[in-house]
């Protein structure tokens, strides 16, 4: 699954339109269809795990600090995807 997530994050970084479409989806099943159209097959469980990682990355903690788990997830220089930077933004799928 790690390789799929890396591919997805690189793709979202490179293709802003795909990122926008992805964040407009309302269910994991809709996300699965969109990803499949873009040559990436992911299970519903993998999509939910990716959503959780993205939400931790996008939604800052109450204190504005990263947890140890968040730091582990971003180690290696990942810059994130181009998502809305508004406070309280949360991916719903």
TrEMBL record:
InterPro entries: CHP03798_Ocin, Nif11. It holds the Pfam family Nif11. It comes from the Bacteria. Residues 3-46 form the Nif11 domain. It comes from Anoxynatronum buryatiense. This is Nif11-like leader peptide domain-containing protein.
């Amino acid at each position: 699954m790690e390789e799929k997530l890396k591919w997805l994050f690189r793709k979202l970084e490179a293709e802003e339109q795909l990122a926008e479409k992805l964040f407009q989806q309302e269910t994991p099943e809709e996300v699965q269809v969109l990803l499949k159209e873009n040559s990436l097959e992911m299970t519903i469980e993998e999509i939910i795990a990716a959503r959780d990682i993205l939400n931790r990355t996008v939604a800052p903690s109450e204190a504005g600090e990263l947890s140890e788990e968040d730091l582990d997830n971003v180690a290696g220089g990942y810059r994130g995807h181009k998502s809305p930077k508004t406070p309280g933004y949360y991916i719903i799928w």
